[in-house]
Structure prediction request, 196 residues.
Amino acid sequence: MTAKPLLLALPALLLAAATWAAPPAAPAAPAVAAAPAAQEAPALVGATTREKVEASKEWVQAEVEAQPDAAAAAALATVEPGAEVTVYLGTWCGDSRREVPRFWKAVDAGGGSVPFAVRYVGVDHAKKEPADLLKQDDIRYLPTIIVRRGGKEVGRIVETSPHGVEQDLLALLTGKAAGVLSTRQDLAPATPRPQG
Prediction:
């Protein structure tokens, strides 16, 4: 064989050698549908009940783990009747998920029957609905627990209770505290009521 035909055949030989030496291409992986993202349950908005909020296992677990002060929790069952407690909460809100189940456990510790009415209001994630109630009660942070006697606000616990929700609620219900009870620094502090 002369050099010229060998030079002409060289590219074909190199291509054949490369094809022979290369591993076979892996078959394309079949397209896998992405698993749907876990969807958060829609927020409860407006008047709601404890039972509806407790339908979420995270809330039940938070209640199981809550450890309210036993003496304060028992004392809630002995306060003067007639108060109304309104609990604004977000079913999506971590602070609500911490404070409200502790409130429930404290109420249950006294036998589940307390001498005050409790109502629950669910708030949407943007804190815009239910607009009329949020505006009426000036709700900016969740949870907010408002105590009223005779239709007038005595005080409120906002976001994180400084002494435990059961102790702060007891102080508001018995008149030992009034105003805002919160660990937030941007809210007006509670005013203690004179003893006697």
The longest strand covers residues 83-89. The chain is about 35% helix and 20% strand.
